[in-house]
Amino acid sequence: MEKQKAPPPVADINVTPMVDVMLVMLIIFMVITPMLSKGITVDLVKTKNPIAMADADKEDAVLVAVSRDGKVYLGSTQMTADSIPSKVKDMLTNRIDKTCYLKADSRARYERVVEVVENLRSAGVDQLGLLTESLNKGGFEEGTGGGA
Fold first, then answer.
1. What is the pLDDT of residue 145?
2. Quick check: 68 and 107 in contact, CB under 8 A?
3. 22 pLDDT higher than 90
4. Is 136 strand, coil or helix?
5. How far, in Å, CA of 129 to CA of 42, rounded?
6. Cα dihedral angle (125, 128, 131, 134), rounded to 10 degrees?
7. End-to-end CA distance of the chain
8. Residue 89 to residue 95: CA distance in whole angstroms
9. Pick from 104, 98, 106: which is nearest to 135 by CA?
């Protein structure tokens, strides 16, 4: 019996498995990314000395937003400012930490923001965190800060 020779080595790179993996990862990111956004997107106020508020990114954080046109959102649900106290009160029952986070668009009317703050206080919010962006000398850097 003769010894069989091995086929000559292939000098081409097989990219098919890599393309398959990349397409699967792309699909996963496309499906997951919309679920990552918490609340609505607003153009936050810029501040020089923000206070870091890592708890605002938690899954169960109570996040209220005021958009540029004065609309009020609890999470990503639009509602009137008058209906917020009852909803927030329900969300804060049986919680030790009664902190609520407010993010307002930098061009929102101040009276609208004050109205939301008053409604949150009437709902029994102990701590109110005002979310802002950090203002650096060379440009903007995202961050959270402020507190009331």
1. 52
2. yes
3. yes
4. coil
5. 16
6. -170
7. 88
8. 10
9. 106
Location of structure tokens 């020089």: 48
Distance, in Å, from the CA atom of 104 to the CA atom of 5, rounded to the nearest integer, reads 73
Domains and CATH numbers, the chain: 46-141 (3.30.420.270)
Could you give the CA distance from residue 119 to residue 124 in angstroms, rounded to a whole number? 9
Rounded-to-integer distance, Cα 66 and Cα 68, Å: 7
Average pLDDT, the chain: 83
In sequence order, what DSSP letters do the residues of 40-64 get, joined into one string? ----BPEESSPPP-GGGGSTT-EEE
Residue with tokens 């080595």: 9
The DSSP secondary-structure symbol of 137 reads S
| Predicted local confidence at residue 71, as pLDDT | 92
Pairing mode of beta strands 140-141, 133-135: antiparallel
Taking 50 as the threshold, does the pLDDT of residue 30 lie above it? Answer: yes
Q: DSSP H helical segments within the chain, as ranges?
A: 16-36, 84-92, 110-122
